Amino acid sequence: MQKFFVGFRFAPPNRLQLSSLIPHPSSLPMSLPSSFAYRRAVNRKVEPSQQLIAFRIHHEWFALPILVAQKVMLLDKLHDSLFGKGASVAFYQEEELVVLDMGRRIFGDAIAKATAPDQAPAPNHTATQIQFVNQQRYLLIVDSFHGEPVGLLLDSQPSLRRVPQSAFSPLPPNHFTEGGIRCVHALVTSIQGQPPLFLLNLHQLLEPVTHHISGY
Fold first, then answer.
1. 0.85 cut: is pTM over it?
2. Range of the domain at 164
3. Nearest to 208 by CA among 37, 52, 88
4. What CA–CA distance (Å, rounded) separates 209 from 216?
C-alpha cells in the first residue's frame, strides 16, 4: 500500500485553471449598454415610407405608387388606335385593353414622334392594323378610376423603390412650362446615388381614357 502511494501527492490548486472558471469582469456581458441601445432602437421614430414602381422614359425617371399597379408584362404587339392619338389596343386576358403611350402623354406629340422607336410597317391585307414591336417593351397594367384596367406602354423594364416620405417635394409652378413635362405633381429626390424620380399624376395620365371610356 505504501508503494502505491509513493510519489503521489495532491497538487495545490492551479491558479490558471481556477481563473479560467471565474470570468474576468471585462468579459461579462455589457447588459446595461445593450439594453439602453435596445430601448433607444425601440423608441426611435420610424419615418413612414412609400413603395414606388419606377421606369425610365426618354432619359428621365418616373414613378407611380405600387398600389395602383396590377401587373407588368412583356408587350408583343399593338393594334391601331381606336380613339385619338397616343392610345392603342392590346389583348390582355382575352379582352381588349386600352394602352397609353407614356412618352406622348408626358412629353407631348412632338417629342414622342422624334424619339419613338422604329416599328415594322403594318400588313395591308388585314382589316385591323397591327404594330409589331421590334424592341423589348413592357406593359404596366394599372386600375383606372372606372374599374377597367389600362395599359401603360414602357420602353424599359420597371423596378421597385422604397423611399421615405421626406424625399417627396412639390414641383415649382414654372417647371411644367419650362421643362415640357406633363402629368407630374411631385419630385422624389435622389436617394443613395439613385436618379431623382418624377411622381406621376394618375388622374392626368389617364385623361384620354376618362374622356373616351363611354364610347370605347
1. no
2. 53-212
3. 88
4. 9
Q: Is residue 154 part of a domain?
A: yes
Residue 72 has pLDDT above 60, yes or no: yes
> Is 27 contained in some domain?
no
Q: Are 120 and 132 in contact (CB under 8 A)?
A: yes
CB–CB of 128/139 below 8 Å? Answer: no
Q: 74 forms bridges with which residues in the sheet? A: 138
Phi, psi for 197 (deg, rounded to 5)? -115, 140
Within-domain flag for 187: yes
Flag whether 171 is in a domain. yes
Structural domains in the chain (count): 1
Q: What span, in angstroms and rounded, lies between the C-alpha atoms of 145 and 207?
A: 10
Over the stretch 131-186, which tens digit does the pLDDT of each residue have?
444 568 899 999 887 788 999 999 889 999 999 999 999 987 666 666 678 899 89
